[in-house]
Amino acid sequence: MSHDRSDGDQAGASHGGGLTTGEVARRLGVAPTTVRSWDRRYGLGPTGHTDGRHRRWTADDVARLERMCSLTATGLPPAEAARLALAEPSADGASQTTRTAPSQPAAAARGRGRAGTGLRLGDVRRECKGLARAALRLDATALDELLRAAVEEHGLITAWTEVIMPTLQAVGRKWESSGERYVEVEHFLSWHVSGALRRHSPPVAADRPGATTLLACVPAEHHTLPLEVLAAALAERDLPVRMFGGALPVESLLAAVRRTGPAVVGLWAQSRATASRPLAQHVAALEWGVRGARRKPLVLTLGPGWAGQTAPGLPHPSGLSEAVTAVESLVRR
Q: What three-state secondary structure class fits 55?
């Protein structure tokens, strides 16, 4: 089920003897204007030309740019990073590109290790590498483009599960292990992911009796992104949803449930410290409607904080896809 832009890169390489500037930019997770600027300012352009004015980037050329990305991601000024990248022995550059050369389809589709960013990404899609680099450079233009491309190419659920979430987790691990450094990177990436979800989401579906889903974080929980992507996935399927965001107080949550009469209530808890099984059970016991036709909501306990705290009647979907399926199965039956 994996489809990657690297296929297009390979096609460009085979037809033109190398990669175009746009293909290189996608490969590195930078804007094409950034690649051209590095060429113009620091001499990091391709070493050869083909077919007149068409410039193509070889494996060694891309290796220099990857070195440039890695150095700037550590905070080194671009001019100094460029000097070091140009001084890198060509043999080292060749060995670096062995993993990402256009002739290696498997490596192009997935990458391991630090991905040249200082982040431990593990065995993830190649797009994670570009997102991580753009986030570490605080490159808003490149980040928005990469997020848009991931959602359009893979669909919302796959983009979130296999591209966005692994990158967010890697950034989170980075600042947790760096003495609170890189907090700005996590905030920056989260903000742009939220914006991408809003831009991708269709208008909220009109309310239908017995079909609305209410989404909220439990009190003291502020991690809203997982609920935002669930709201967007439900809107894609024309399912009405009401989103209340982070740290909704208990009384406000209960009032919202009573006022809206939702079919499903999704409660997100990132940590076990914020998850509350008594609260979830209380919400699940709320009733509304006329006598003889009283209804209750199905409460979904969402997020890792509920691990070990679930109870009968409180389903705990393991991920985004499972949560969407649970809502659809109840609302559409």
A: strand
Phi, psi at 325, each rounded to 5°: -60, -40
pTM (two decimals): 0.67
Cβ neighbour number for residue 76 with a 10 Å cutoff: 15
At 50-94, the pLDDT tens digits run 554 567 888 888 888 888 887 776 667 778 788 888 887 654 444
Cα 7 to chain center, whole Å? 21
Listed in sequence order, the DSSP H helices in the chain are 6-16, 21-28, 32-42, 59-73, 78-87, 90-97, 105-109, 126-136, 140-154, 156-159, 165-176, 183-200, 225-236, 250-260, 277-285, 320-331
Identify the CA nearest to 286 among candidates 310, 305, 264: 264
Partner residues linked to 301 by β-bridges: 267
Ordered DSSP codes for 275-305:
--HHHHHHHHH--BSSTTS-B-PEEEEESGG
